[in-house]
Structure formats: C-alpha cells, structure tokens
Amino acid sequence: MARPARLAASVLNADFARLGEDVARVEPYLDFLHMDVMDGHFVPNLSFGIPVIASLRRVSSLYFDCHLMVTNPTSLFGPVKEAGGDMVTIHIEVWPDPTGAAAHARSLGLDFGLVLNPPTPFGAVAPFLHLCDRLLVMSVNPGFGAQAFMSGVLDKVAEARKFIDSAALPTDIEIDGGITPETARLARRAGADSFVVGSALMRAPDPVKAAQDLRAAVKDG
Ligand code: DX5
Ligand code: ZN
C-alpha cells in the first residue's frame, strides 16, 4: 500500500538569483526539498553543491533530500550533513554494492536511499532495499530538468511497490523527472509515495496554484 502522498520541489530549474524567495513561496505546500547535486561526470551537467545546500538550510526548515548525481557520492556525505542535509540518495549505477555507503550515511546521522536510472532494472536494488529509507525511480535520464516523463518506468514503480509491500519494508518510493499533475497521477496509481517536481512547479506562472494542483492530482480516492 502506498503511503500518504508527499510533494517535493527540485530547485534545479529555479532562478538561482532568487532561490530563497522562490523556495519560501512554495515551502508551505511542500513536504520536503529535493537537491540535485551534479558533477559534470556521472551526468553531463553541473548544477550546485554544498554551499547552496548550506545557504538554503539557513532560510528553510524543510527536510532536505540530496540526490547525488556524482561519480564519488560517499565523499560528499560528511559535507552534506554539515551543510544541513537530511538524506542522501546515491545511484546504484555508480555504487553496485551500497552496503558500506548506507552504513556510512547512517553513522553520520543521514537517512539513505538508492536511485535507479530509467534503463536500470529493479533487480539491481532489490537486495539492498532493506538498507534504504527511500528508493528513487528516475523517470528521465538524469542531468537536466524539463525533460519529458518516460512512462516506461511505471512498471518498475509497480514492481518496487509489490516488493516493498510483500517484504513489509518502510522504504518510500520517490519518482523524479517530468512530473506534472498528469504524470504524477499515473505514478501514484503505479504505487509511488513521493513526487519530485522541478520545472512544473518552480517555473510555473503561479507556483502556489501549481503546488495545489499537484497535491490534488496525487490525492487518493
Ligand atoms: C534530473 C533531476 C530532477 C529534475 C526534475 O536530473 O534529478 O530532479 O530536476 O526536474 P523536472 O521536474 O523539470 O523534470
Ligand atoms: Zn533529482
């Protein structure tokens, strides 16, 4: 059974000159903030890193979910924690046995999660899900915001839902990439718990209305 739906903003496509104000405007409508850290190596783009997380920590009390799209994620765990991050998620594609990484995150007081790129099968993370607070299913190839949702990943969300429910794991299923009210509804039906929204929220003409529309879309019933 999916849990109550939770909504997060990705600040990747926000206007970085007014990041604090833009986050403050939508903060009351969000459950957490999703930080897309990129290294220009694991993904073909650079975004932002520790200083931006630390700056946002000073103006926001939201839970910070830090999506590390980098080749060497564990080296960032300590700095992310110091900057005020609450969770790190790392890609199974760069860390095929994340047992030690999960223990390292927990020893620092961070929550831990694994991420699957669209082509990566669910089986790659299944043996490690009991170590995870969250499974992040990418619905675009990571690196850029404002890409189209890949509906082929919905079967993988459903597979994860089934596995997590049958093993009675507390792992949250998060979906990230191309989320709009329409695609969020599809992902919710497939079993997603948490919804990361970048451009459809931070670039909307009326972000508050966009947040309300997204929330309505994933409401059960
Ligand atoms: C992509 C990032 C996503 C992205 C989402 O690499 O992981 O979090 O910012 O942005 P939208 O919602 O615009 O696809
Ligand atoms: Zn992300």
What would your notes on this structure say?
The protein is of the alpha/beta class. The longest helix has 13 residues, at 154-166. It is built from 8 helices and 8 strands. It has helices at residues 19-26, 50-59, 77-83, 99-107, 154-166, 181-190, 199-202, 207-218, and strands at residues 6-10, 32-38, 63-69, 87-91, 111-116, 134-138, 172-176, 194-197. Helix content is 33%, strand content 20%. The protein is globular and about 40 Å long. Strands 1-2-3-4-5-6-7-8 form an 8-stranded parallel β-barrel, surrounded by 5 helices. The two termini are 13 Å apart. Bound molecules: D-xylitol-5-phosphate and zinc ion. Residues 10, 34, 36, 67, 176, 196 line the site of zinc ion. D-xylitol-5-phosphate (DX5) binds at residues 10, 12-13, 34, 36, 67, 140, 142-143, 145-147, 176-179, 196-200.
Offer a concise description of the structure.
With 221 residues, the protein is α/β, with parallel strands linked by helices. The chain has helices at 19-26, 50-59, 77-83, 99-107, 154-166, 181-190, 199-202, 207-218, and strands spanning 6-10, 32-38, 63-69, 87-91, 111-116, 134-138, 172-176, 194-197. Helix 1 (19-26) links the parallel strand 1 and strand 2.
Distance between the termini: 13 Å
Q: Number of helical runs?
A: 8
Bound molecules: D-xylitol-5-phosphate, zinc ion
Strand content: 15-25%
Give Rg in angstroms.
16 Å
Biggest sheet: strands side by side, in what order? 1-2-3-4-5-6-7-8
Major β-sheet profile? 8 strands, parallel, barrel
Low-pLDDT segments, ≥5 res: none
